Amino acid sequence: MDAELLHSPVVGLSEEEEADMSDWNLPLAFMKKRHLEKIEGSKALAQSWRMKDRMKTVSVALVLCLNVGVDPPDVVKTSPCARLECWIDPLSMSPQKALETIGANLQKQYENWQPRARYKQSLDPTVDEVKKLCTSLRRNAKEERVLFHYNGHGVPRPTVNGEIWVFNKNYTQYIPLSIYDLQTWMGSPSIFVYDCSNAGIIVKSFKQFALQREQELEVAAINPNHPLAQMPLPPSMKNCIQLAACEANELLPMNPDLPADLFTSCLTTPIKILCKLMCVCVCVCVFRIPGRLNDRRTPLGELNWIFTAITDTIAWNVLPRDLFQKLFRQDLLVASLFRNFLLAERIMRSYNCTPVSSPRLPPTYMHAMWQAWDLAVDICLSQLPTIIEEGTAFRHSPFFAEQLTAFQVWLTMGVENRNPPEQLPIVLQVLLSQVHRLRALDLLGCFLDLGPWAVSLALSVGIFPYVLKLLQSSARELRPLLVFIWAKILAVDSSCQADLVKDNGHKYFLSVLADPYMPAEHRTMAVFILAVIVNSYNTGQEACLQGNLIAICLEQLSDPHPLLRQWVAICLGRIWQNFDSARWCGVRDSAHEKLYSLLSDPIPEVRCAAVFALGTFVGNSAERTDHSTTIDHNVAMMLAQLINDGSPVVRKELVVALSHLVVQYESNFCTVALQFMEEEKNYAAPSPANTTEPGNLTPVRESPAIPRLRSVNSYTNIRAATTARNLNKSLQNLNLNEEGGPVTFSPGNLSASSSASSTLGSPDNDEYILSFETIDKMRRVSSYSSLNSLIGVSFNSVYTQIWRVLLHLAADPFPEVSDLAMKVLNSIAYKATMNARPQKILDSGSLTQSAPASPTSKGTLIHQAGGSPPIPGVSSSSLTNEVPKPPTRDAPPTRPPYTPTLGTQGPPHSHQFQRTRKMFDKGPDQMTEDGEETPGHRNFISMALQTGLCDWSAKYFAQPVMKIPEEHDMESQVRKEREWRFLRNAGVRRQSQRIIQRGTTTLHNSTQHCTFQPYSALFWDWEKGERLDYFYNGNPRYTRITAMEYLNGHDCSLLLTATDDGALRIWKNFADQRNPEMVTAWQGLSDMLPSTRGAGMVVDWEQETGLLMTSGDVRVVRIWDTEREMKVQDIPTGADSCVTSLSCDPQRSLVVAGLGDGSVRVYDRRMGPNECRVMTYREHGAWVVKAHLQRETDGHIISVSVNGDVRFFDPRTPDSINILQTVKGLTALDIHPQANLFACGSMNQFIAVYNSNGDVISNIKYYDGFMGQRIGAISCLAFHPYWPHLAVGSNDYYMSIYSAEKRLR
């Protein structure tokens, strides 16, 4: 073989051959999201968009120190000079009237931005008037914000000592006013606007005084006797904002073309000042721009709208996020002032003036968005002459359409990792316009689809109030867009549920869900939103119940869209979770019966959601009636049918659902548990691992000791793989037999705690009362008759059946399912044991005890016990007996050793406990003599059992749904890797075909040494002769691996292992020196008895259809659909012996089985169970070693028995068409799928390779090399699917590879 061929990305295929590669048409099994990722919700992002301290400016103090007609002594004005104050020329009227007019104008200008505030003017005031004004406004404002506007154009400049100037009563003197005093009067929160020269001095002084106050507060807090502590505490100035017209060393501009209060004009009349400055030639029109400021359809309103969008955009792109939230989203008036402040900075810098703010903003006057503003103003002003003179219609600005286009370019052309789009605030402004709203919502939805980061970004900009308001719209065209956007928001931040219910937003989504003309995708998002609204939120549950949500959901259960069915079920499960009114509404609508149909849904996630809904249906905590009890029992028995579902996520949810029933009927299950434990105690037969049991006629051989395995970190890899001694520890510590001897190892107690299993009912160190061994024995040996005759409760068969289901699930091959069931079983066993023991409990600490509760509302949760478990070593079959302390063992690496410490005070007796406590309540606190809690007394977890399925399902809506999946993206790395693998496969097929066409005359040897264990898997690189990896399969020690298959061998390979207890396990990362992970596991065949003389479990895999055929020591051939993870067919074998070999052909739908009685049977799986056996061949006289169906249109059946007779059958004829006699004592046979070869291995220590004519190609009796020893008895052999290579395993622990081409060493 050309070794380089496998590693070359180019194999010389033509384009036609590449296009015809068959690998692309093969489906992949077990590669869905549920197989590739952990079933848990996404980590919640810290949401900072919601303003915790939203404020309102409720009072405004307008302090004007103009002293019209008298210039201050420290300012030398130019001539001519800027004179306009609030667009009024003070010299055009009397001084007093001018002052009053200016004050009134200033108030009107502020009222444009905050009309509801309380305004007070103080014109040319004294210190006392200012004090009185400020204290009065602060008193009325309470904790809200107050604005102080100071115009000091008629007084001297501020002093370096932190003083501004006012007047005396007679206006003969300028009186200083300390900023420190002003801080005291104004309090906090406040905003200060200073329009005067050298205003930066005030900002600096303000900060110094604020720091001084903070120091005073600290001194008073540290030393209560300090004089400052006796005085009223000064207010903190942390929440104060300042806006100043210029720096500390700058004068205000005196240009006669400008207003004297340029800073105030920028802050309060930005459009007016901009238009004045833009073009002197149209200044006549400037003051007559048509329209109103708040009417966006008019020129003035549109300019203001564009200005708001641009300044918001500049601030959002330049400012830190928290500062943007504080200044532009916390307070409407503050936001308006700071938008206008950005304009003031741009204008005043051109006149050598730098406005100052506190908190300080980064420079924004050079931002590129100002150019868009200049263009918008130019377009508007150019229309004014014709609008005013001729009355022509106003043409709206293309600004918003152009910005949406820019946003669309960012969305479609941008790279994966890029800066946020600067147009996002503009998109939100566009939502206010009906003209552009549809396009804006569409683009916004595309942006939110980029992921949770985009949703958080949009929320921080301020999307929430916009899209909340839009829910009041009745426009049908907006429905799909709004539903999509809200699904994205709630998938990231579910706390919005309260806002939706408060504004009746849930009614919008109820109408969408009930609309039959709405596409299924949008109804899915609507029901997801409603599921979030009712999730653990009683107000939402009540509102949606009144909105008829249950009836609407029940109508959608049969929808062909699987995701809709899934979320309808989840929504139903959430609305009646702990909400009895909804449960009874569901009962009236027969909701539970309608949900039964989803238990057989082809999609595992839908089945899982249905189990969740039925679990919460029986998990309500309200008082029980006979009617409700009957319903619960019916639901439980329906759920029990899923015990052998092929999907572990369904079985995990099943355990949780049944745990709800266990909680509600606690006392009944305690009774059942005690009876099962009594049965197990009276059953004398030891473990099945080393003896014969009734019903199992074949003795089970003792397995060899488990070798030391490397630690496997991944939990899904099957608990922690470690030494046999460590693996046995928890069982041997916990579960001694009557004589005190250790029990046999089993995997049920090997699991490390998982997030899904750390919730219910057993001690927190997982040292269970019921070990896996005990539970397994209960499951196998307890008799119905004895139980039914002794359990004195009604509906005993229901409780017994559910207990058996839980016992079965505790032995589940998937660790997380097993762990959850063990938690439930041990919680009840612990409670039942404590209830049954009135005498003093073991001296390891205090254990809880309470009476069995009848079905009641007290047990909504299963509580773990508040005390120590029995001393390790107490068998569940002898809980009332004192037992010797077990020998000390090495602790497993996955958890610390448990060493109970004896307390100084005896544990409580049963009469010390209240009779009405919840299950596993902590009970009376046991304290030592000095009041300390005894070291042996340990708290137990108390939390609801859950799987995380709903949160995991919700991740779908948080992640991109419009993005092309990586496997379909032609440029993605995943796609490129697949292409490389498929090109490599095609090259292997071509190269091997050439070798096969040349003919095979002999096979050459290449031998490697390895050991084989029946409960572990080893992987070798046969070309290099290196062992790659090995891992523990997780099956119990008394079972063995009897079959292995590669799944997805053409692409990302998975390994299937089948054991003789009927369990199937699928592994990934099994041979690449990483931790192997269990993808899934399920009970492929039930009621199989582990045996060394039987066939164990045999399987055959159809990659083309995703079907898995299973059989073995049973009387059926069971077919599993791996896509649906369901059993699709049971074909009766019609024989009393075991099935030893399976082979299938997807093209002809045929299944061929070789049996232990020598017969070869052909089944057509398209036919019913009674007619599907279409042919039976009885020509073999002994055990059939292999039956192979050639996958060709007219392919033959090739079979061989232990007697060595190879027979060829045509499925259309009743007799064999050819017979070849090979060697006796045949133990293994394989047929090459491509070449005309088959190989036989014998217990008599040799291998024979034949062609289909019966000619011997090779006889192999010795290993290669000088003095090569005799090969061992052959145990297994297999051909490579394409190359003429044969792998052989023998009982002497050697593995050999034989090739048609001599290997160069």
TrEMBL record:
Residues 54-207 form the Raptor N-terminal CASPase-like domain. This is Regulatory associated protein of MTOR complex 1. GO terms for biological process: autophagy; cellular response to amino acid stimulus; cellular response to starvation; positive regulation of cell growth; regulation of autophagy; TORC1 signaling. Residues 845-859 have a biased composition (Polar residues). Gene3D superfamilies: Leucine-rich Repeat Variant, YVTN repeat-like/Quinoprotein amine dehydrogenase. One of its GO terms (cellular component) is cytoplasm. Keywords: Repeat, WD repeat. SMART domains: Raptor_N (SM01302), WD40 (SM00320). The keyword Repeat applies. Signal peptide: none annotated. It comes from Astyanax mexicanus (Blind cave fish). One of its GO terms (molecular function) is protein-macromolecule adaptor activity. Belongs to the WD repeat RAPTOR family. Residues 884-899 have a biased composition (Pro residues). Residues 844-913 are annotated as: Disordered.
